[in-house]
Amino acid sequence: MTAEQHPVRSTAAGLLGRVMITPVLPRPRLRRLVRLYAGLTLYGLSGALLVHSELGSMPWDVLHQGLARQTGLSIGTWSVLVGALLMLLWIPLRQKPGLGTLSNVVVVGMTVDLFLWLLPGTDSLMARVGLLVLGVLVCAIATGCYIGAGLGPGPRDGLMTGLAARGWSVRLARTVIEVSVVVTGVLLGGTVGVGTVVFAVAIGPLAQLFLPLLRMPDETPETPVPQGS
């Protein structure tokens, strides 16, 4: 590489650094990518398990499900669309996405639709309770994987941390966002129930359990654990 090319690379890296928190993959790159995409795929699986349980979805999926019922578009499609719209809200909040953020928008929506199609439905209450418990557990593992990869928070998490950076407490930001999302989802026809409550109560402690086990050893920057989708 010639000396003249170095300023070009430096300028490009500087521009990327202004808009993304992870313009270049930190090492170990392959392990981070595997951890990231395994986590996002498992996140889609967990959403599908909770929807199939018919006992209540995770808060954001209540909204996606309600929108799907009103429009005929799939839950996964609305997950992608809502994620993309939320990233527009990052601009005034001055939040920076990473590779994990952009991947979250697309991969979770695609995989939740895939698993909704693959997983069989059931009328057995015991089986539905099993789907609920498994869905919450898989979501906690997924959270540890994709947050532990250190490649950027999900679009919904970034909205919460962006509001927190503007003076809101994390608890207040999370509560306002998720209550608004659930209420809107219910009004649109989304399923809320005991599963939604179990998810809200259990996901934080379970994610805190798995995150240290799945975090990359040299993770930078540190990202807070999300409380929900």
TrEMBL record:
What's the superkingdom here?
A: Bacteria
One family from Pfam that matches here is DUF6198
Q: Which UniProt keywords apply?
A: Membrane, Transmembrane, Transmembrane helix
Transmembrane regions listed in the UniProt entry? 33-51, 71-91, 98-119, 125-151
Presence of the UniProt keyword Membrane in the record: yes
* InterPro entries in the record: YczE/YyaS-like
Please state what the protein is called. Answer: Membrane protein YczE
